[in-house]
Amino acid sequence: MKIKVVYVGPIRTHTRTAEEVLEVAAGTTVSGLLALLCEHHGDGFRDSIFLDGGHLANFARVLLDGEDQYEAGGLERNLDGVQEVSILLIPSMAGGRF
Amino acid sequence: MAQVAPREAVREDVWIPTVCYMCYNACSILAHRVNGVVVKIEGDPKSPHNTGKCCAKGNAGLMSLYNPHRITTPLRRTNPQKGYKVDPGFEPISWDEALDIVADRLKKAREKDPRRIMLSSFDLHGLGAFGESFTSALGTHNVSSGPAGFFCGNGVHPITWMNHGTFYAEPDVDHCKYLILIGSQAGGAVHLNPLGIGARMAEARLKGMKLVVVDPMCCQMASKANDWIPIRPGTDTAFALGMLNVLLNDLGIFDAPFIKKFTNGAYLAGPDGKYIRHPDSGRPLVWDSGSGTPKGFDDATVVDPALEGSYEVDGVSCKPGFQLLKEHVALYPPARVEEITTVPAETILRIAREYGEAASIGSKIVIDGVELPYRPAHVDWSRGPSSHAHGMSAGVAIQLLNTVIGAVDVPGGHLGISGSGPNWAPYAGPDGLLTPSPDLVVFHQPYPPRKVKKPELYEAPELFPLAVYSRSLLPENLMHPEKYGLDYRIEVFIHARNNYMMQTIHPEIVAEAYRQIPFIVTFAHTMDPSTEMADIVFPDTHFLERLDCFPNRIRAFQLANGGYWYWMLRQPVSDPPPGVRHWVSVLFDIADRVGILPDYHRTLNHLLRLKGSNQLAADQKYTFEEVSDRWCKSKFGSEHDLEWFKKNGIHTEPKDVRHVYQLPFLNVRIPLYHEFFIKAGEDVKQVTQELGLHDWDTDDFEAIPHWRPCPAYKEKGEHDLFLINYKVPYHAQSYTFENAWLDDLTQGYPDARSVLMNTETARSKGIADGDEIVVESTNGYQSRAVARVAETIHPEVVAIMGTQGHWVDGQPMARGKGVHWNSMLEYDVKRIDKLSAALDACVKVKIVKT
Q: How many CB atoms lie within 10 A of CB B1?
C-alpha cells in the first residue's frame, strides 16, 4: 500500500525532501515505517527521532492522518487505512500540554 | 487663584479578569478600569491559583503600563559598533520596512543553513507552541529560554522529571507536619505558585507544621521558621548526605515497602556500579530473599526483594542499590558534615531524628474516600543548592531524603505538578523507571538519557544528556564555536522578554558574545541593555495589553493540591499605544513574509490541538484573536469560545485525588540508585575527549553523589567571603526595578540596595552598619556599596538582592541603583555543572571600607 510521508521542521535536514510517497506492505506498523525511514535516511534521521534504547524522543511527533500516534494507537498500531504520516521535529520552548 | 480641573464624569467603571505577568507565576487578577484608564489591580477571588491574593508586583503592574519611556515604534540601529554602554543610535522606521528587513535576513540565513537562526525568549506564558511551531517551520533547533537557565532550576527540573514526571514539585503543606526548605523560598512570595502556597503555608504553620530552613541567610522563609540553619554556600550535598547517614545508619528510619515497590533500591549493582542484568532479557536483577535466587526486577514470582546484604550472581559479587546507598552515606558522619557545612553535628542529628519521626512511616490517610500512604514530612529545594558547580548532585542527594521515607507524590510529601492528569501519566520506561508523559517534557528530556554526541546546537545540549537545558554554554559557544565542533555561525538571533546583559554574567562578556552575531532582532517593551545590542527593535505590548490563552501552563503554573485544574485567559484591558503589537502575533507576519506559513500552521494545528473546522488552513491568514478563539473552542467546545473566556476569565474542573497523589496509582519506579548516570558519564567523557575538551570533568556522573567543593570553596586569601544573591517578594528578574511603586517600596527597605554582612565579620574588618564599602570579586569587578550589618547572615557570606545596578538611559528609575551581582560571577566552563549545566553562582569577594 502507498503512504504519503510528510516531514516538518529540522528533520528535513536529514530527509532533504518535504514529503515522499512510499510503498509499504499491508500490516506495516508505525514502528515498522519508522525503521524503514531510518534505513532510508540514515543515522542523523534516527538520532533525531529516537533516544538510546529505541524510545521516541519527545521532540519527535508522529501524526497519522493528523492525529498523534500516542492517541491513535501507539507505535505498534498498523497503518492500514492511513493515508498520510507526518513526522514533526519540534524544538522545545516551554510549550507542552495546556 | 489656582483652578481645580472639574472631575471627569464616569463613563466606564469595570473590573476585568486577566492574568498578571509581573513575574512568571500567572496569578489571576482583576484590573479596575475607569474611563479607559487602569486605576487598580487586585487578585481574582474566583481563581484557585492565588485565591484573590495579589503581591506588590502585581499591584504595581499598572505603573509599568503607563511607563513614559516605552518603545512605541520599530527601531533600526545606525551605530555599527555594539557593546556595553555603547549608544546604538536607534532611528525609527516603519513596521513594513522592519518586517521586510527581518524577513530578508531570515530567508538568507535559512537558505544557507536553518540552524543559523536562533530564537530565545523567557515568555513562558505566551510563546510555547507558537515559538516551537515558528522555529520548527524555519527548520532550526537553536532555541533557548534565556538567562534564567544559567542558574535557576538546573538542578531541580531534571530531578522532578525523574521522580514526578514533571517540571516542578511543591510541598503538600495541607498535610505536612515537618517541612525542610533547603535554599528554597516556597511559601514566600518568590518561587513557583507563591501566593497559593504562601496562604496555605501560613495556615499549616498555624496548625503546627514545623518549618526548618537551611540557608546561608535568614531569608524571608527562614524568618518565619522554627529553625533557621545557616549553612556555608555550596555544601548542601554534604548536609543531605549527612542527614541520610543519620536516618539510614544511626536511626534505621526508612520506608522499606516503598523502596522495594516504587524505587530501584533493590536492583543489584556489580563492582563497576552498573546493574547486574538478566543474561537473556537484559532486565536488572534483584535478590529474592523468598527463594534465595536472583530474579528480574519485574518477575511476578519475586517474594521479597532484598534491600540489604551482599550477593553473588554468576560469580560476580553485587549489592542492592539501597545497601550501596547506606554504605556511601556512612562516609558523611555528623562531625565531617559539620566541618564541611558549618552546621553543628548535634543539629544534624536533631533535624534528622525529628524529620524521620515526623514521617510516620507506615501510616495511612483517607482523602476523598481513597486510602493513601501518609508521609507528613519532606524536603523542598530550589535555586540555592542548584546554582553551583556540582548543583545537580545536591538535587539528587536532597531528593533522596524524600525517597527514603516514601514522601513522593503522597499526602504530606513532595508533589509533582500535573505529572498525571485525565489523559496522561508517567509510564515505566527503560528498566522500569518513571518516564514522563511526552507532552509534559517541555525542555530536553533527562530520562532516558539522551544520546551524547558532538554538539550541533549552540547551547550544546548534546554534552549534557541528563540536563533539561544548557543555557550557560551559549556565550562560550558564540565566542568559541570551534572548540565544540560547531561548523556554522549564528547569523540571526531573535530575542524577546529576556535580558542576557543583566541577568547572566558580566555584560562585557555578553557583549563580546553578541558581537559574534551579525543580526539581532529584539521585541521589547522598554529599552534595556540587551535591546541596545539589537539591529532591529520591535515595540512589544505590556501584559495588560496582551491576549494569551491559558498562560498558566499545566506543567508548572497549577497548584498540585489546589483542588482544581484551571485555565485562565490573559486579555487586553488597555489598548496598546499606536504601533505597538503583541510580539507573538508578529511571528505570523514574519512567517508569512519568509514563506513558511503552511508549515507554521500545520505545526500549530498539532500543538494547539486544533480540531475540525477550527484547524488553520495552510495559506490563509488569521488574526491572533481568531487563532485564540479556535484554540479555546478546540480545547473546551464551542460554548467556551474566546468571548466566554473574556467574560469569565477562568475555567475550572475538579481534580481527582489520583492526579494529586499519583505515585500509588502508577506502575513505575523512581531512582534511588542513579545507575544510568554512569553510562551517561562514560559517553560524555568519550565525546569530550574526541573534541579535545580534556578538562571536562565527569566525576559527578555517579550512581550516588559525593559532595565536591565549588572552585570558590578552595580559594583563600583576601577574597575571603562568599557572595550570594537573594530574592525579595517585590521584585522579579530585572524589569520590576523600573517601576515607580516598586522603586518606592525598595527605597523604604534599607537592606535592598545594600550589601548584607554578618555583624562579627563586619566588626573584624572595621565596618559598621551604613559604612560605604567596595566589593571586589575574584574576577576583578568592583562596585561601591553600603554595608548593612546584621546577625541574619552566615559569617562567611555577604549577600546582594536581585538584579540591580541598571545602566541604560531607557531605565531612568532603576539606573545607578544597587549592585549588579551578575558582574561579580566567574564565567569559566570549569565552573559549569557538567550534569545540569548550571553556572556556579558561588564566588568569593573582598570587602574593604572606603
A: 2
What fold characterizes domain A2-89?
Ubiquitin-like (UB roll) (3.10.20)
**Nearest CA among B436, B500, B440 for reference residue B473:** B500
**Cβ separation of A97 and B424 shorter than 8 Å?**
yes
pLDDT digits (tens, 9 = 90+) for B416-453: 999 999 989 999 999 999 999 888 878 888 998 888 99
pLDDT at B443: 86
B-chain CB neighbours of A55 within 8 Å are 429-430, 435, 448
Is the confidence at residue B1, as pLDDT, over 80?
A: no
Distance of residue B214 Cα from the nearest chain A Cα, in angstroms: 30
Instruction: Say how far apart CA B673 and CA B339 lie, in whole Å.
Output: 26
Minimum Cα–Cα distance from A13: chain B residue? B139
Q: Which of B814, B819, B730, B744 is nearest to B55 (CA)?
A: B730
The dihedral region occupied by B692, where left means phi > 0, alpha psi between -120 and 50, and beta the remainder, is: left
Angle between helices B583-594 and B128-138 (to 10 degrees): 20
pLDDT at B4: 65
- As given in the structure block, the three cell numbers for residue B716 are 583563600
**pLDDT score at B2:** 55
Sketch out chain B's domains with CATH numbers: 157-422 (3.40.228.10), 711-849 (2.40.40.20)
* Chain A touched by B428 (CB under 8 Å): no
* Domain range summary for chain A, segments of one domain joined by +: 2-89
Quote the minimal CA–CA distance from B119 to chain A in Å: 9
Q: What ipTM is given for this predicted complex?
A: 0.94
Of chain B, the end-to-end C-alpha distance in Å amounts to 52
Look at the block and give the residue holding cell 535555586.
B383
User: Does A9 sit within 8 Å of B606, measured CB to CB?
Assistant: no
